[in-house]
Amino acid sequence: MAYVAVSGGKEAIEESIKLLDYYRSGTDKDIDVEAIEKKLSLLVDRVMSEAGLYSKKYAALAIKQCEGAVEEAVFLLRAYRSTLTRNYYTNPVSTNDMRVVRRISAAFKDIEGGQILGATYDYTHRLINFEIDKESSEELQQRAQGMAVEQTPQDIVPCPRVSDVLKTEGLIDRTPENNNPPHDVTVNMLEFPSERSARLQTLSRADTGFISGLAYSSLRGFGQLHPTVGELRCGYVELYVPYLSNEGESIYIGEILITEVECFNQADDKHQLKIAVGYGAVFGRNENKAISMAVLDRELESGGPYPAQNEEFVLTHGDSLEMNGFISHLKLPHYVTFQSKLDAVRKTRGAS
Prior knowledge:
Elements: H1 10-23, H2 33-39, H3 41-51, H4 56-65, H5 70-81, E1 99-104, H6 137-150, H7 162-168, H8 196-204, H9 208-221, E2 228-242, E3 250-266, E4 275-283, H10 287-302, H11 311-317, H12 320-328, H13 335-351
Antiparallel strand pairs: 1-2, 2-3, 3-4
Helix pairs in contact: 2-4, 3-4, 3-5, 4-5, 8-10, 9-10
C-alpha cells in the first residue's frame, strides 16, 4: 500500500479539500470526460498503462478529477480497479493477428507486409500551432470524416513478425515453450529472482518517466548498449474468454489498443553468432515506454553491474504508486524524529 500524505485537524482537511474545487473553478468553460478521452488520448493511455486497467472513460474521469496529475490519476484508477471482481481470464492473445494501425522497423527498409507509418509526431516540426486555439471541433470532425470517406476499405491482412524471418535463419534464439500460467503481480508478491512474466508485468505498469530514464542510462551512461527497433507495431487485438459450457469454444468480448516492440541487440556472449531480443508491450499508444521496456527487458535478462541490470532496483522503484506515495509521505509530520536529530547535533556541538 502506498503512503498517503494527510495532516492537520478534521476541519482543516475539509477546507483543504474544498480548495481543490476552487483551483478547478478558474473558468466557466468545462472539459467533459469524453473530450479528455478523445483529445488527450496519449495521456489517457499512459494512465491506463500505469494503473493496469484498460478503461479510457475512467482514466479520463480520473485525469479530470485530479487536475491532470498523472500519479494521482493512476492512484485513483488503481484504487477503483481493486474493487472490481475478476470474473474471467481471457485466452492468451496472439499479436500476430493484430489489426495494425502503425508498424515500422528501424532494422530493415523493406519488410513483409510493408511499413505502415500511421499517426506519429516523429515527423512534425515541433512548433506550436497557435491556430489550434481557434480550432472548431465540428470542423475538425468533418475533416476527419472526409478523410475516412476518401479511403478505400481493404481486407485486414495480419502482418508477419520481422523477428520470425531471423528465427527461420537461426539468427535469433527461439524462446522456450512455457505453458505455465503467468505470475500475476497484482495478486502474488513479487519475489527475486523473478520470472520474466512478472518482470514484464511490472515494467508495463511502471512509471513511464522512470523506465525511460533507466533505459536512457543503459544507452548512454553505462556500457555501450545500442539496440535496434526490430519492429514497433500499434494496433487492436481481440479478446476472448472461454465458453464455460462447451470446452474449446470461446466468446468474443471486445478489442483493446496496444503498442508492442521488439528490440534487437548483440548477445551477451560475443562468440555467439545470434541476436538478442528485448520485448515490450503496453496499453494504448505509448511508443517510448514500450521501447524502454524492451531495452530494460534485455538488460534484466542479461544482468550486470549497472542500475538498469539490477532486477530488484528496477522493479521495486519504478512503480508510480509506490514511488510517488513514498515521496509524498515526506510531507507527513516527522516532529519526533527530526527533534531527535537536532538533539544529537546539539550534543555533538556541545561536546566538541
